DNA sequence: TAGTTAATCAACCCATAGGTTGAATATGCC
DNA sequence: GGCATATTCAACCTATGGGTTGATTAACTA
């Protein structure tokens, strides 16, 4: 699978996005990450593996802990991709703006 | 499934992203969209349904044709989400910048 | 009315995703 | 060495995704 697909796919799960949000506040171990979720530790471990494969997190080794860190680098690619379409959602506002200016002049 | 997940999920397929790129150049019918792809028309039809459910395209009715139009609105949500993490990939550059400035002063 | 074209529906196949439970592997602590 | 803790591995289950082929629906055309 290509990188962008892998990243989008990793982001398509709310649990994984929540994990990223958690890691945005700082490094955390698997148990710490898993704590707020109503799923098993193993399930969280799997999510972490998906995030790791997508390059969104990196993992260290400290004794029996595997501290996870956010790596936002792949999100740059997402930002670049989405920027290509920016004009399409702004256009709408431009059109609205044009329309409002037009009726303003007319009345 | 929440909207953001649905959108990310829809974007996680290269064929679907290619369809969006095609529609960025203008409206097209299902057959026109399907033409460049090495998969069946039905498969493309399914992809279009996924994109439609995610709100990324809208479809009209003109005789037996179903012209598809890009609707980039949901991508705003993606842009907003990813922007939250922007500082994390920029930080890295800041750190690099700081580092470069530092060694420059040192030598 | 019959035939062609556009698109969808339906049934099916296989691989993968997300979850489970239970066992295994390290590592630190007495 | 023996035990607790942190994490992963393995096997399994079920649902879904992306693809196929064949049949169906709807609209134009001769």
3D structure, described in words:
2 copies of one chain form a homodimer. The first copy, chain A, has one domain: Winged helix-like DNA-binding domain superfamily/Winged helix DNA-binding domain (Arc Repressor Mutant, subunit A). Chain A has 6 helices and 2 strands, in the order ααααββαα. Chain A has helices at residues 3-11, 14-24, 30-34, 41-53, 73-83, 86-106, and strands spanning 57-59, 68-70. In chain A, strands 1-2 form a two-stranded antiparallel ribbon. In chain A, a hairpin with an 8-residue loop joins strand 1 and strand 2. In chain A, helix 1 (3-11) packs antiparallel against helix 4 and helix 1 (3-11) crosses helix 5 (73-83). The first copy, chain A, is elongated and about 50 Å long. The N and C termini of chain A lie far apart (56 Å). Mean pLDDT of chain A is 89; it is low at 97-107. The interface between A and B is medium-sized, with 28 and 28 residues. Chain B binds a DNA duplex (30 and 30 nucleotides) through residues 9, 13, 15, 29-31, 39-43, 45-47, 49-50, 63-66.
């Amino acid at each position: 699978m290509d990188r962008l697909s892998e990243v989008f796919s990793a982001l398509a799960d709310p649990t994984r996005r929540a994990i990223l949000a958690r890691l945005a506040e700082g490094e955390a171990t698997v148990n710490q990450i898993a704590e707020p979720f109503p799923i098993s530790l193993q399930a969280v471990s799997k999510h972490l593996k998906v995030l790791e494969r997508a390059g969104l997190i990196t993992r260290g080794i400290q004794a029996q802990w595997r501290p996870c860190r956010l790596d936002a680098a792949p999100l740059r690619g997402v930002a670049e991709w989405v920027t290509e379409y920016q004009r399409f959602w702004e256009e709408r506002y431009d059109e609205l703006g044009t329309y409002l200016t037009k009726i303003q002049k007319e009345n």
